[in-house]
Every structure is written in C-alpha cells, then in structure tokens.
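User: ok so my PI wants both of these folded by tonight, can you help

Assistant: No problem, let's get them done. Here's the first:
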Amino acid sequence: MKELNDRFANYIEKIRSLEKQNQTLKMEIEHARYDKKNEDYLLSEKESSIFSENETLKIDNSILNQKIKELQIRLTNESNGRREAEERITNLLESTSSEFLSLQQKYNQQTEMISNLKKLIQINKK
C-alpha cells in the first residue's frame, strides 16, 4: 500500500508539474499573441504613416512640377523679351550711327562753309 501511495504521490506531483508547465506555456502563448497583435498594430500604423507620407510627397511633387512649368514659361517669356529688347537696341544703335554720320557730314560742311566765309571776309577787308 505504501508503494501505491508513493506512486500515487509521484503521479500527483507529476500532474502538478505538468499543470505548472501548462500555465507557463499558456502565458507564453498569450504574450506571443499580444506581441503579434501589437506588432501588427505597429506595422499597420507604420504602413498608414508611409502611405500618408507618400500621398503628401505626390502632392508636393505635383506642386513642384507645376512651379517648374510656370518657371519655364516665365523663362521663355523673359528670353523673348530680352531678344526683342536686344533687337530694339541694335536698331537704335544703327539708327543713331546713321544720324551721327549725317550730322557729322553736315558739321563738316558747315565748318568748311564758315572757313570759306572767313576767307572771303578777309579778302574783302583787304
């Protein structure tokens, strides 16, 4: 009978040990499930954040592309304006040069006439 009691006590001890192991495993499983849910939540949050950041970057990219187009149009307009201004300056320089030559010829003619008149006056004085 004592042997049966000892065997029974060992059996009960083994059952208690297994129950403790079972409780420990249950807790580990619950922790793993919690960690998995937490990890899934964090990944979902990160994915949502990345998606939001991506949308913001798309909007920023679109705005920058629009600004680039506006600047290209402005550059084209400014270049055309500059070309027109340079053409006007060239035309004014040509016009001014021809007027200058014309005035210089008139000046030379008048100087020559004055010189001739002075000579005539001197001749008449004598």
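One down. Here's the second:
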Amino acid sequence: NWSEALLLGIFPPIRLEINDNEGHPSSSHQALKGTSKWATSLENLLEDPEGVKRFREFLKKEFSEENVLFWLACEEFKKTQGKKQMQEKAKEIYMTFLSSKASSQVNVEGQSRLSETILETPHPLMFQKLQDQIFNLMKYDSYSRFLKSDIFLNHKKSEEQEETSPEAQTAAKRASRIYNT
C-alpha cells in the first residue's frame, strides 16, 4: 500500500518547489529561518535543533518537558531497525514515559490499557496514536504560549540584532559581490 510505504518512510517525502519567472526557487519559503520559521508551525520548530532546544527550555519551566522528549523518542523509534533493537527502545520508551512508574510520565488517553505485552511485538508505528496526542497537546497548548514567552521573544530579538549588525550587512554585501560577478 502506497500510503503505508510513505508512512514507513520507504519513499522520500514529496517536496513541491515554487519557482519565480526565471525558474529560481521562490524566496518566500527559502528566506524563513530561525524564529520566523518556528512561528509558522510546530512542525517547523521541531525540525530545527535550536528550536527544539529553546522549546525544551520553555517546557522545562512549565514542568512539561516530558512531552517533547516523548515526541522526539517516538520519532527516533520509527527509524529503529531490527526486532531486538526495537524491543529495547520500545521498552525504554514505555518505562520512561508510559508506565505507571515512569520517571517522566506523559498524560495520554489509552495509557492505562497499554501493558508490557505490546513490547514483545514492536513495530515502527506502535506509539503513533500516543505521539499524535502529545503533538496535539503541544500544538494547541504549550506551543502558543512558547511563541509569547521571553525565551522565544528574546531569541527573536537577538536574531534581528544579528541581521541588522554592520558585520552581517558587510558579509551580505561581500557575498552578493562574489556571486553577482
């Protein structure tokens, strides 16, 4: 099934590129980076290691860092090869985030029905429903607060100052001279 193959990562994701009149990639998507890109979606934030770092810092202050850690662990789990490694990682995720004795327990529906027996036959998407719940919790709850937080706003301000600094402008002018010759 094609959609299953896509979910399992067999096919690379399809990327559509919008080009200008001269066939160059449109700058509207290319130019966004850092906090500007983070502010467009939680997905973009989670694709950027610096964004994840800042989001974790924020969630730590809200006592909910386990949510993003669980989400990241599930993403990593999907890439795991081999039944033995999958069993080990699945058990680690279960013991860390899902068991009643978990050190960093996440709050998800259906958690009480999960038992260690599911760990015997792991598959890449075994945590998907729970991961989706946590993603939605972050997206509709903590992500919007993060975008208003001092952590985000201060990082954005420092990015803007870097962009307008004389050194950055000089480097940009040098680069434009090099590539426009």
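The radius of gyration is 21 Å. The longest helix spans residues 128-146. Good luck tonight!
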